[in-house]
Design a protein that fits this description.
Number of helices: 4
Structural class: mainly alpha
Strand content: under 5%
Low-confidence stretches: none
Shape: flat
Length: 124
């Protein structure tokens, strides 16, 4: 009916039930997982290549008056904004351009707080 219970104390104490799991099963699981990952990645790679070709064929033609237009217009060349647009330009990097103004305002606020503390100290 059922397996006999083993009450014997073994010196290793860190064992597991050998009937429940085996190293071969774990190996097969990871091998199957690796195979499925490879198959799915190749399928996705093929799908993206098909979609890329479809996108290229459906892309509207470039204006004939435009000069020096790259073949693949989805890739932005380096130094594009500087070469394409004349001066004066709007802000190109707002965060770093506003750093000096922000730091000056913080320093002014700190000076105002220090001045308020000095006035309170003199009144008492």
């Amino acid at each position: 009916m059922s397996d006999p219970v083993k009450h014997a104390s073994t010196p290793s104490h860190g064992s597991y039930e050998r009937q429940d799991i085996s190293a071969r099963g774990i190996f097969y699981f990871f091998a199957g997982l690796l195979a499925a990952t490879l198959v799915i990645s190749f399928l996705l790679l093929g799908l993206y290549k098909i979609l890329d070709k479809r996108f290229e064929t459906h892309q509207p033609p470039v204006n004939p008056l435009a000069v020096n237009v790259p073949q693949d217009t989805r890739k932005v060349p380096p130094q594009y904004p500087e070469t394409a647009f004349p001066d004066p330009r709007l802000e190109t990097d707002e965060r770093t351009q506003l750093n000096s103004i922000r730091i000056a305002e913080e320093q002014k606020a700190q000076r105002n707080q220090a001045a308020k503390k000095e006035k309170k100290g003199k009144k008492q």
